[in-house]
């Protein structure tokens, strides 16, 4: 169950598996300790163990309810203002520019944990270059990241036997199949292509069909006539494609030898057995619609290509296509990612790291919606804290996507990042303790009173593990973060001030001596260096998703009533396929 929860979380955010386990273990310990102290043994429970289990489940449910109701607001108000919001212009800025620095720093921190330190800079620059090519012209940034995330298997090509520094981007799409017919050299443009989802030659029998032939010759003559008819119809189809100027044919299924022979005679390129993912990407980039009925080819079924030629990548030869520029069809200039590695396993590791990095960026940029009631409550709380809090969080100022429901708004501004090394955990720990103290002082019975302290205590397990080699550095870093919070003279808005082109979550200048200086208040209020070493950057949204996933896993674990232990390995066959005699024999064994 734990492995499945970690896997589901990592497929969403692309990272956080180790932190997931650390937080999970810490929360289970804290819940067990708290439950064992509660005097809840009564007539409802027949043992102390049952009472502790019930209390633990109750605490886990309260933790999850608190996180779903309050945690996003708390992070938005108390944690995110101490970070920096990276704009989409930073993602697509020129390499080595100050605007692009933070994006490369975020990616380098991610790749450092996944692949090591040596090639972090190269892989980060390659990822930024990929994002720059795939940026959408008219859409919001997370649409481009969503497209890359969904189509990454078709966009990248692994090549073993070369160093990682040989990885590069090439224009167009690489289809991971070779030509089924000889490739004719042609210079005419544009090249027209059609995607077929079925067989071009009508088939007498499908898979699994049985043909029964009688003693007479009627069935045999019918088969001969059918074969002759299919050959004539196929010739007419090829002639029709030639009249339309089509010279490239792509197919999901494997075509017959007769189809390939006629295509060769007509000097047409045929690529069959193409994966559905690659054909889906081809259709999206070309604007052409795949066709199932080959006799009803319309202009919308024909794709225009700049070129279609073979490409040799390592020991494999593939099909390389580039798309004709058209403002009506393609709003990006597509590029394929070639990922190289010395061995097959290492190449797959690099490819997984690239894919997870895109998932991480998408989670960082994806807006987190909240109900209007929650947003209004946060605004009231903000006004109570200080009169200088003038940037009120309104639906018009925070929701950047017109596709969001009018009753929803963005809690965390997309692109919020902050220094790694326990910064998020220290800030949220402080915010949770402050919340529990304020609720206790007002004699509030809110569910966040006991569980906020429990969650705050569990959060410190992450920085403790980071600085396990030096406990003194843990205390020093925590003290610096706390002094940074107390030196701020007023709260800060998360929403970008569009009128002044400035973000309240800002950073003055790039890294200084490898150390990130973040400013959320006046320069005089800010210590010169927040951290004693450069720990990189991390996403606030990914941290928020991690906390929710861990709390959901804790709740699922503590809802288990009984574990059935077996002394032998369970068989995979169903009970219907197993006789009672064999079951009794296995029990005796």
From TrEMBL:
Biological process terms in GO annotation: chaperone-mediated protein complex assembly
Signal peptide: none
Gene3D superfamilies reported in the protein's UniProt record: GroEL, TCP-1-like chaperonin intermediate domain
InterPro entries: BBS10 (IPR042619), GroEL-like_apical_dom_sf (IPR027409), GROEL-like_equatorial_sf (IPR027413), TCP-1-like_intermed_sf (IPR027410)
PANTHER family: BARDET-BIEDL SYNDROME 10 PROTEIN (PTHR14667:SF2)
Protein name per the record: Bardet-Biedl syndrome 10 protein homolog
Record organism: Acanthochromis polyacanthus
């Amino acid at each position: 169950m734990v492995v499945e929860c970690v896997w589901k979380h990592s497929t969403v955010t692309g990272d956080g598996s180790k932190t997931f386990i650390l937080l999970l273990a810490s929360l289970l310990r804290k819940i067990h300790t708290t439950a064992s102290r509660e005097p809840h043994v009564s007539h409802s429970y027949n043992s102390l163990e049952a009472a502790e289990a019930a209390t633990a489940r109750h605490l886990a449910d309260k933790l999850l309810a608190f996180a779903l109701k309050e945690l996003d607001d708390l992070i938005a108000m108390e944690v995110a203002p101490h970070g920096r919001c990276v704009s989409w212009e930073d993602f697509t800025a020129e390499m080595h520019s100050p605007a692009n620095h933070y994006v490369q720093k975020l990616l380098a921190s991610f790749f450092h944990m996944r692949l090591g330190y040596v090639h972090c800079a190269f892989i980060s620059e390659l990822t930024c270059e990929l994002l720059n090519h795939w940026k959408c012209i008219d859409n919001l940034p997370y649409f481009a990241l969503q497209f890359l995330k969904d189509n990454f298997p078709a966009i990248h090509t692994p090549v073993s036997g070369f160093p990682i520094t040989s990885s590069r981007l090439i224009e167009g799409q690489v289809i991971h199949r070779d030509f089924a017919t000889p490739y004719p050299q042609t210079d005419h443009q544009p090249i027209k292509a059609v995607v077929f989802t079925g067989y071009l030659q009508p088939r007498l029998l499908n898979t699994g069909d049985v043909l029964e032939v009688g003693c007479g010759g009627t069935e045999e003559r019918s088969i001969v006539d059918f074969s002759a008819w299919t050959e004539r119809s196929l010739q007419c189809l090829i002639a029709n494609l030639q009249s339309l100027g089509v010279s490239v044919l792509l197919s999901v299924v494997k075509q017959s030898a007769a189809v390939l022979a006629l295509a060769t005679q007509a000097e047409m390129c045929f690529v069959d057995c193409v994966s559905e993912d690659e054909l889906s990407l081809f259709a999206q980039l070309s604007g052409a619609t795949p066709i199932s009925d080959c006799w009803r080819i319309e202009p919308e079924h024909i794709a225009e290509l700049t070129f279609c030629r073979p490409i040799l990548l390592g020991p494999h030869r593939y099909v390389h296509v580039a798309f004709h520029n058209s403002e009506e069809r393609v709003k990006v200039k597509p590029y394929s990612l070639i990922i190289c590695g010395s061995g097959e396993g290492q190449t797959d590791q690099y490819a997984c790291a690239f894919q997870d990095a895109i998932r991480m960026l998408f989670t960082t940029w994806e807006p987190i919606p909240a109900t209007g009631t929650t947003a209004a409550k946060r605004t009231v709380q903000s006004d109570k804290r200080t009169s200088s809090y003038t940037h009120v969080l309104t639906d018009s100022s925070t929701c950047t996507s017109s596709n969001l429901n009018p009753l929803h708004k963005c809690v965390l501004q997309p692109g919020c990042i902050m220094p790694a090394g326990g910064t998020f955990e220290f800030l949220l720990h402080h915010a949770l303790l402050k919340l529990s103290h304020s609720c206790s002082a007002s004699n509030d019975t809110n569910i966040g009173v006991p569980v906020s302290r429990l969650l705050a205590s569990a959060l410190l397990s992450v920085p403790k593990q980071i600085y396990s080699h030096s406990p003194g550095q843990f205390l020093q870093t925590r003290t610096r973060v706390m002094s940074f919070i107390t030196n701020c003279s007023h709260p800060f808005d998360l929403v970008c001030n569009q009128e002044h082109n400035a973000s309240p979550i800002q950073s003055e200048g790039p890294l200084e001596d490898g150390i990130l200086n973040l400013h959320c208040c006046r320069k005089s209020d800010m210590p010169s260096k927040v951290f004693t070493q450069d720990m990189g950057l991390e996403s606030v949204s990914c941290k928020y998703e991690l906390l929710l996933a861990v709390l959901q896993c804790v709740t699922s674990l503590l809802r288990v009533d009984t574990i059935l232990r077996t002394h032998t390995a369970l068989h995979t066959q169903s009970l219907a396929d197993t006789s009672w005699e064999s079951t009794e024999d296995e029990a005796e064994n």
